[in-house]
Specification:
By secondary structure, this protein is α+β, with helices and mostly antiparallel strands. It is about 65% helix and about 10% strand. The strands form two sheets. A six-stranded antiparallel sheet has the order 2-1-3-4-5-6, with helices on one face. Strands 7-8 form a two-stranded antiparallel sheet. The longest helix is centred in the last third of the chain and has 63 residues, at about 395-455. About 10% of the residues are buried. Keywords: Coiled coil.
């Protein structure tokens, strides 16, 4: 916090143009009522903390007001307000200026760093300027609401960290619960998607069987091609046999035996060849019949080929489903880890409440032994609350109970203050008794000295009457325990 050198007020409430120079140490404003003393403090509060808000403090008949505060290091903070202007101006000792606008109800960070008077932030929407007191303001915190006092005491004792931790834990818990719900829904969706493929084992068996049939059909097709080639060869041989027979028919009218013999030899040769070809033809016919049967059996090759194509698609689908199954397993593992995290964080609330018990309750209630039964009752209720919190997720009810316990702590603080005042009064009474006892002893000593002097004189210095032993005894009794009335009566006697 820096010191103040000068304050200049222009058109702020009752001040038209006022300049106040501060001195080192304590500065006091004196004067009659309604002379502007409180307005000076309001202008100082306005330039430091942007309070009060609005524009009602602008002097009547004027459209603009300005307050300039010069700090001890030469930095100037200027606050201006009009119907169209609302800004801070920060001017350093070299004359360089920074203009701040659009800051709302807050104070620019640079201005706070300049005068170093930071208000204590008790909550997101509540700040307490402890460096500044207003006129007719009550004792510190007693004029504030119960919530503000509780938050102030909680910040001093560190209980606000528990509130922050509770909010963060609730937010993490909600996010994890949402993720768990999302994963559960994803799991159900994947399980529903996998139901049509529960018979994957039978489909895989069918695919393997179809692959075997496909290979067998390929072999049959190759055999069919060979049969077609053999059939073409057989047709060629059959044509040659027909040609040979026609030749034999033309040779029946030959007269030459040599020619006939030669032709017979040739015919024998050809006959032997035909015999062989006939034998081959029979074999071919048997094979043809055999392969014809095979062709009839393999007439459904196109259908098998189509089924094989469909099975290939199903194989791709199986691979996709296997990847989906792997993904489901990964999701299950991730879900298990999240549940472990949730189970491990269930004890945080008990830990936080234990911290509150150690850091807050013992610190404020240990000095008041008269509140021990009530403190024990609070502890018992606290343990019941912790047991209830470990079995439920209704954190909002826990927050309500926490606020009730904070109110009880506030009451305990009030009782502590009353006990301190009672102890102070008792100490003062004890000091008064000691003072009376000391004065009585001094009166006794002085009375004895006075009686000794009267005995030495033998008569009263005022009236001149003779003083004997009974008179001295009466005087001693009057001074030590009688009173003024009895003392006067003694003088008459």
């Amino acid at each position: 916090m820096k010191g103040f050198r000068k304050l200049t007020i222009e058109n702020f409430q009752s001040h038209v143009d006022t300049e106040v120079k501060f001195s080192d140490g304590l500065n006091v404003f004196v004067g009659p009522s309604d002379s502007g003393k409180s307005a000076i403090l309001r202008s100082l509060r306005w330039v430091l903390f942007n309070q009060p808000r609005g524009s009602e403090f602008i002097r009547t008949g004027k459209s603009k007001c300005r307050v300039t505060l010069t700090l001890s290091d030469g930095v100037e903070i200027i606050r201006e307000r009009s119907s169209s202007t609302n800004r801070y101006i920060l001017r350093d000792p070299t004359g360089e200026e920074q203009v701040f606008e659009g800051f709302g109800s807050q104070v620019p960070k640079e201005v706070l760093q300049a005068h170093q008077m930071h208000p204590i932030k008790l909550d997101q929407d509540w700040n307490l300027p402890v460096q500044f007191g207003t006129q007719l303001e009550g004792p510190f915190l007693l004029s504030e609401t119960g919530g503000v006092r509780a938050k102030s005491i909680g910040r001093v004792s560190g209980a606000h960290m528990i509130d922050i931790a509770l909010r963060d834990t609730m937010r993490d818990r909600h996010s994890l619960s949402a993720e768990v719900r999302h994963l559960e829904e994803e799991k159900k969706r994947l399980e529903e998607a996998l139901k049509p493929f529960e018979n994957l084992e039978s489909l895989l068996h069918q695919v393997q069987r179809a692959e075997g049939l496909y290979h067998e059909a390929e072999e049959k097709r190759q055999q069919l091609m060979r049969l077609k080639e053999l059939k073409e060869q057989w047709n060629l041989i059959q044509g040659e046999v027909d040609r040979e027979r026609s030749v034999l028919d033309r040779l029946t009218e030959l007269e030459s035996c040599g020619a006939i013999l030669l032709e017979v030899e040739r015919s024998q040769f050809r006959l032997a060849r035909i015999y062989r070809l006939t034998k081959i033809q029979k074999q071919f016919m048997q094979e043809r019949k055999h392969w014809q049967q095979i062709l009839e059996k393999t007439a459904q090759c196109d259908t098998v080929d189509k089924q094989l194509t469909e099975l290939e698609e199903q194989k791709k689908t199986v691979r996709t489903l296997q990847s989906v199954r792997d993904r489901r397993n990964q999701v299950g593992k991730h879900l298990f880890k999240i549940r472990q995290v949730l189970s491990s964080t269930e004890g945080l609330f008990k830990g936080f409440l234990e911290m509150d018990k150690v850091d807050a309750s013992y610190q404020h209630l240990s000095r008041l032994s008269a509140l021990l039964p009530r403190y024990q009752a609070c502890q018992l209720e606290k343990k019941r609350t912790e047991s209830w919190l470990s079995r439920t997720e209704k954190v909002q009810q826990a927050m309500v109970m926490l606020r009730e316990m904070e109110q009880e702590v506030q009451q305990a603080v009030k009782l502590t203050q009353k006990s301190d005042r009672l102890r102070d009064v008792s100490n003062r009474l004890e000091e008064g008794r000691l003072f009376l006892k000391k004065n009585e002893e001094e009166i006794r000593i002085r009375t004895e000295q006075l009686a000794t002097l009267f005995q030495q004189m033998g008569k009263c210095p005022t009236c001149g009457s003779v003083i004997d032993g009974s008179v001295m005894k009466h005087i001693s009794e009057e001074y030590q325990g009688g009173g003024m009335t009895d003392a006067a009566a003694g003088r008459e006697d």
